[in-house]
């Protein structure tokens, strides 16, 4: 393990150790679930007080980088997503190689770089980052793209089941978390201390879907289908909320593929999520399918804009 501390450096000993271990975990020096050196072992190797190691391990645990097991030690849990892009990591590698070729001290370079980087950062106003959290990868990705386009902000799609694997540091980069009313309590519970940053949003059908429904006659059958039954039921609710209570809905879901063929039987219009629409078109290329992955209502967008202005 290439970890070293020096009391002559500008940073406190515990900060030196913390930053090196954090970077080593991010770089994959330990596998997921691998045990870190014990407090006693690491303190002895570095010739530092055990309490310093305890403090560092506790800080890593708070970030979600390690977990402790009583009597067994600390075990590594790398972040779900690396904090730096591949391009940034490559730049760091090339810079260190260049410093080595020059015969210079990389730590002295880092000490000189940090205050200048902080001053440079202060000149720029960082782009606002939001997170969209939903239950399926397809829906989450599409909602994130819609939101980014509507608000001109950076939006990260996070699947609800994967939220627990994000560490606190990565989550703190998001100004707001947008989800649907069905999942707001789950998201708030997964974000202790940030529940006020969670915005429950309403979804609406796309304008193309509304226009197509308006051209139907009373009593016409309309097929609706999403990746899971929850999505199909939500689509049904949105169609009813849009004022189309007199339409006979034929429901299906990719969760039960055997339900999909009934959508192709004497149905003048099918409203489906992208993944379902692709399957239906494969079976019947001329099927009257409209893709509707739904989007946030204008009221939800206004609420997000208002909150962002308050946070500015």
Features of the shown structure:
312 residues, alpha/beta, Arc Repressor Mutant, subunit A, Rossmann fold, 4 domains, four-stranded parallel β-sheet, 12 strands, Tscrpt_reg_HTH_GntR, WH_DNA-bd_sf, GntR family transcriptional regulator
Category from helices, strands and their pairing: alpha/beta
What is the C-level CATH assignment of the largest domain? Alpha Beta
Provide the gyration radius in Å: 26 Å
Range of strand content: 15-25%
Largest sheet: 4 strands, parallel
Helix and strand run: HHHEEHHEHEHEHEEHEHEEHEEH
Poorly predicted runs of 5 or more residues:
none
Helical proportion, percent range: 40-55%
Residue-averaged pLDDT: 89
Q: Strand sequence of the main sheet, in spatial order?
A: 4-3-5-6
> Please, how many helices?
12
Count of domain modules: 4
Q: How many angstroms separate the termini?
A: 43 Å
> CATH architecture of the largest domain, please?
3-Layer(aba) Sandwich
Number of beta strands: 12
Under CATH, the topology of the largest domain is which?
Answer: Rossmann fold
Shape: elongated
Task: Describe the protein in words.
The protein contains twelve helices and twelve strands. The chain is an alpha/beta fold and 312 residues long. The protein has four domains: 13-76, Arc Repressor Mutant, subunit A; 86-123, no CATH class; 129-203 and 298-311, Rossmann fold (3-Layer(aba) Sandwich), CATH 3.40.50; 207-293, Rossmann fold. The radius of gyration is 26 Å and the shape is elongated. The two termini are 43 Å apart.
